Amino acid sequence: MLKQSLTLAISSLALATTLVSPAIAAPADFIGTWVNKDSNTRGVTRLVITSTGDKLNIQVFGQCHPQDCDWGTVPLVTYGVNVQDTNHSYASANYNQNFANRLLTFGHAGKEIMLQGYTQFLDNSNRQNFYSREYFQKQPQVKFPPNIRTIPPNFRDR
Q1: What pTM, to 2 d.p., does this model score?
Q2: Which one, 18, 26, 113, 158, has least CB within 10 Å?
Q3: Is 154 left (phi over 0), alpha (psi -120 to 50) or beta?
C-alpha cells in the first residue's frame, strides 16, 4: 500500500511539474503592443513589435511631454539558448539616435517582457552612460465579431 501511494505521489508530482514548467516562447510570441508596467516611468512607455515575413521589427516610444516620443522602427533580432533552439525567449535592437546609441535587450517570459537598456551618450554633453531595466505587459487585442451591426440612426435619437 505504501509503495502504491509513493508511486502515485511521484507520478502526480511529475505531472504537476510538467504542467507548471516555464512557457516556451517562439519569435512570434514577441508580436504585439507591450505597455510599461510602471505607468509613471520616465523611460520607455510602449513597445510595438510587428512582423514582415519572417523578420520582426520594433517601434519604441519613450516618455516625453505632452506625448510620447517615437524612436522609430528598427529590426528586432531574436535568440534561443543554443544553435538548435527555435523557441526564442531573448531579443535585441539597436537605436542610433545621433546624440546617443541605445542597445536594448529583451527577455520574454509568459505575458511579460523585461527590457534592459544600455545608453551611451555621443554628444559631448558630459551626461553619464547608463543602464535601465523595465517590465512590460502585453496589451490585449480587442476583437469584434465580424457580424456586428451598427446602431440604426433613428435609434440614437431616442
Answers
A1: 0.73
A2: 158
A3: alpha
